[in-house]
Amino acid sequence: IFRYSANTKALEALKSRINFTWDTTLKPDLDPHIVGNLLKLYLKELPESLIPTCMTGDFLRFAYCYSTKKLFLTFQKLCQNLPLAYYNSLKYVTHLLADVAQQHSVNKMNSKSLGMAFGSCIFR
Predict the structure, then answer these.
(1) Which pLDDT value is given to residue 52?
(2) What pLDDT band is residue 5 in, cutting at 50, 70 and 90?
(3) Residue ranges per domain, the chain?
(4) Where is the Rho-GAP domain (predicted)?
């Protein structure tokens, strides 16, 4: 879903429609690669990544230091220090990515693939 490039004209058309009309209704036959690419484009065009640059070091410092449970609790505490808009956006994106990863046998997007596709959108 997130690895393949979408048709550029279709991607720009959807982006323009949403930007100018706020109509986020998606047709059932819409190419899912367009939607996936639009999400990545939106995240890349944000003025700041979902984890603000000033907090990136805090997150990365703990990435290799603890057990999985301790790491999760530490990340949870760090996320609580995010500005509310960042926190909410990160929460929705990570829930979406978790749902996609759970279906990896169908969509071929495991957590590693998703990390590669979205890492630069979440951290800069």
Answers:
(1) 94
(2) confident
(3) 1-45, 48-124
(4) 1-124
Cβ–Cβ < 8 Å for 103, 86: no
Identity of the residue numbered 76: Q
What CA–CA distance (Å, rounded) separates 97 from 76? Answer: 17
Percentage of the chain beyond pLDDT 90 is 65
CATH 1.10.555.10 fits 48-124, yes or no: yes
CA distance 59 to 79: 9
List of long-range contacts for 3-10, beta carbons under 8 Å, 24+ apart: 3/109, 3/113, 3/117, 4/33, 5/33, 5/37, 6/31, 6/33, 6/34, 6/36, 6/37, 6/38, 7/31, 7/34, 10/34
Measured CA to CA in angstroms, residue 12 lies from 2, 30, 39, 41 at distances of 16, 14, 12, 10
The tens digit of pLDDT for each residue in 42-62 reads 999 999 999 999 999 998 888
